[in-house]
Amino acid sequence: MIGDPVFKRILGLILITVVGLALYAFLVEPRWVEIVEITIETEKIPKDSKIKIVQLSDLHIHEIGDREKYVLKVIEEINPDLVVITGDLIDDKKNVDKLYSFLRNISHVKRIYVILGNWDHWSGIDLNEYIRDLEALGVTVLVNSNDVITEDTFCLNIVGVDDPHTGRANLEKALTGIKSDCYTLLLAHSPEIIDKIAKKNIDLILTGHTHGGQVILPIYGPLFLPVEEKYRKYSSGLFKIGNSTLYVNRGLGTSILPVRFLCRPEITVIKIVGK
Question: What is the pTM of this model?
């Protein structure tokens, strides 16, 4: 059978396919960024008003390469009202200067908000110094805290918790002092925060952490999900959780293995519009 020409051709095709898919997963898809646009309606802002947000997540920044340059170009073209980065900006303190360079290139955005993820904590960096350096770049770092944006006709609560995945989130503290009549946006690194949001009057939750699974296998689904089984269905995308809306971003970078398959890196553009 091994000497059969048909068998050899089939084996050759299988090998070519496997090698091709591996090259695609390592070299192509991790750099092929998708722009995902979602629109959310609310009665908490007037009909003729809107808020445009760019969400980035899980940068795991190692360099300012083609992917990062593309992201910077997209942000400049979109010109959002604010940029939010939902954790895991770095995974090794040696790359922090590259992160700072990236952030300097979006300093034209009026408001930039950052929260911490598990890898920010595990990167080996001095967190107090890290936060000071980020804030020196004009970034607002929310660690179980909040900020209020007030415009002429509406207001927006921006609430940020520390990493839920490692048990550092304190939502009660983060919500202290918010304005009850404002639209409330919660930034959390992981969708695991949903266990804490009941009766909290949170309109929109933006998270990351999952990377969408990084590799999605037909039939099986996401291969690598760093969450408990009960959160598996929140691998990526838009969900309704009670009266709140949850969005899980697939992230830009990769973790553990530098591969993606059927799970492109993502920039999310969220438009919150009045109705």
Answer: 0.95
- Mean pLDDT over the full length of the chain: 95
Interatomic CA distance for residues 204 and 197, integer angstroms: 11
Greater model confidence, 84 or 2: 84
Contact at 8 Å (CB) between 80 and 71? no
CA gap 73, 76 in Å, rounded? 5
pLDDT higher than threshold 80 for residue 34 = yes
Mean pLDDT of 188-215: 96
152-182 tens-digit pLDDT:
888 999 999 999 999 999 999 999 999 999 9
User: Helix axis angle, 127-136 relative to 96-104, nearest 10°?
Assistant: 20
For 273, list phi and psi in degrees, rounded to 5. -125, 150
